[in-house]
Each structure stands twice: as C-alpha cells, then as structure tokens.
Amino acid sequence: MRKTKETAEVKETKTPPATKKKKCKPRGGNSPVIGMNGYNLKAGDNTKFLEINVALMNMPNIDMTNPSEVAQRLSDYFALYAQNDMKPTVVGMAIALNGHSRQWLHAVVNDAPLGGRGNMPNLRPDVTNVIKKAYFLLENLWENYMQNGKVNPVAGIFLGKNNYGYRDQTEYLVQPAQKDENDYSADEIKERYIPAEEPKRLSASDSDEKPSE
Questions:
Q1: Distance CA 164, CA 106 (A)
Q2: Residue 164: phi, psi to the nearest 5?
Q3: Do 163 and 90 meet the contact criterion of CB atoms below 8 Å apart?
C-alpha cells in the first residue's frame, strides 16, 4: 500500500489595522476656563492688587456734601488704577467714596432705596450727578473692553449683568384677544356661561310653580 502524505493547509491570519482613537473633549466640555484661558496671573500681580486695595482703604474721608471734593476723589481713584495699569472697578469706586459698598453706589446711581429698609441715600443732587457721571464712565469702559477683546467674555458678561443691569433673555408680551361688546349676542353668552342642563331645570321649576286651573 502506498501511503499518501497528508498536507495541512495553514491559513494566514491578518491582523486588522489599528483603529484611530476618537478624540474626546477635555474634561469640562467647552468651558472657557481651562488652563490659562480663565486667568492670567504674573509674578508680582498679587502684590500690586493688594497695594491698590490698601491704598483705597487708607484714603481719608471726604465731605460727601461737597461736589468739588467728591469729583477730586473720583479723579484720584481713576488715577490710582491708571498708574498701575489696571481696569477700574465698581466696588473700588464705592470704597474710594468713604468706604461704601456696591449696593450703596447702585442706590445712588439709580435713585433707589438701600436694601429693604427704604432709606434713600441722603446726598445733594449736584453730588449725585458727579457720582452718576463717574459710574457711567465705568460702564462705557466696560463696553470698550468687551468690544475690543480686552476682558474675558465670561467675566465681562457677568459684570455687565451684575453692575449695569444688562440681560440676555427673550421677553414675550402676551395680550388677550379683545372684542367689542357688540360682537357678542345674548344667546352666545348663555351658551358660554350657562350649563346645558340649567335651562331644562329652570323650565321644569317654572312649570311646577304654575297654579292649577
């Protein structure tokens, strides 16, 4: 007997090509505050900010009934920030005016009461006008920073909403349909407001009350 040599077929297996890993968004999604995108702190910045705030705290009180002193104080306030190449702030202006708060400054500018106490800021109109003019200057600076890319957009929007009353909401005005009184007849009013069984009940009660002949 002749033996036949059995040959085994070897199948070559090919490894599939490596699939490209899908690039995922970093943690936080599209948040603008990632890495150095949310802040830009340089050496010596903390010292500069602290020195400016200490200078504001140590400003002597002025006569808030004197418009000339108020105007000079506001000029000194803007000069302090300009000398340090910093953007002026609403709270900084309030502190420069004898250490007041942002709420007090908002009440002065908007002729509004202070909180829920109902107390109005007791200032002369000419003094109030000087403060309002300086406050509007801050708002104009804020617009310039936003339009020219000189402030982080997220921080700029936050300041605009909280300090200057800006909003980014859509308002809808809903008005009821108005018709003239002549557009309704007596029968239509009865059909709308009197239930369907009411006329039957009324007619039945009327028939019961009729005297017998």
A1: 9
A2: -125, 5
A3: yes
Phi and psi based region of residue 111 (left: phi greater than 0; alpha: psi -120 to 50; beta: remaining): left
194 domain residue, yes or no: no
d(CA 66, CA 197): 78
Q: Looking at the 3D structure of the chain, how many domains does it have?
A: 1
The token duo for 40 is 């830009």
Domain that holds residue 104: 43-111+121-164
Does residue 106 sit within a domain?
Answer: yes
**pTM exceeding the 0.85 threshold for the entire prediction:** no
pLDDT digits (tens, 9 = 90+) for 4-51: 555 445 455 565 566 666 665 555 555 555 555 556 778 888 999 999
In a domain, residue 127? The reply is yes
The sign one gets for the Cα dihedral 186, 188, 193, 197 is positive
- Amino acid identity of 57? M
The string of pLDDT tens digits covering residues 87-119 is: 999 999 999 999 999 999 999 998 888 766 666
> What is residue 210's DSSP assignment?
S
